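Recall that a protein's primary structure is simply its ordered list of amino acids. Everything else, from secondary elements to tertiary packing, is in principle encoded there. The following example makes that idea concrete.
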Amino acid sequence: MKDTNCGCCSSKLKELERQIAGDLLSIGAVFLRPEQPFTWASGIKSPIYCDNRLTLTAPAVRNNVENGLATVIRELYPECEVLMGTSTAGIAHAAITATILDKPMGYVRGSAKDHGRTNQIEGRLEPGQKVVVIEDLISTGDSCIEVVKVLRAAGADVLGVASIFTYGMKTGLEHLHDAQVKNHSLSNFDTLIKVAAERGYIKPEDIERLMAFRENPRDESWITAR
């Protein structure tokens, strides 16, 4: 599926990729450290760490992110009727973006409550409504795919996902494709490392190493490559 419908739309979204990449770097929401890799919970040694929750405490960046998500929805998901955030990181972004767009929103819990009405979907959702899921980060894609499955089981017509950042890893792309889930992220790994090199966050010669990491995160040869 294509993410854009015209050249003008494509240009606008490309500009957003660079703007959001610079924003995330400026507040440390995305942090690059190729010389001292982070260790993810999976054990993978990574040159990048992402905490998009920091965007909520940086008003200027938050404004760019939420208006960017609103732009993605207007351009790529114009039929959207309801926004649904992922729990918990996507909830605030869904609420703010829904306010900008003047649309209803809700969120999907990781599991159904064990009390009360035992809801897993919070907020009103009618069968057949056209929904866009709001997510902060796409890595393997599994968490947002589970949210989409819950919404589809409730009768929603899920148009796709709008997210802040994606690593663009092969595994994640394959999982989304197999689940027939369309995603558009405001920015991505490839754009971010180019902007990072331009602005001195990393050395230009680090780009090739970081791209090798993205291609195969479990192959640690990128760490010693020069």
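The radius of gyration is 18 Å. The chain is about 40% helix and 20% strand.
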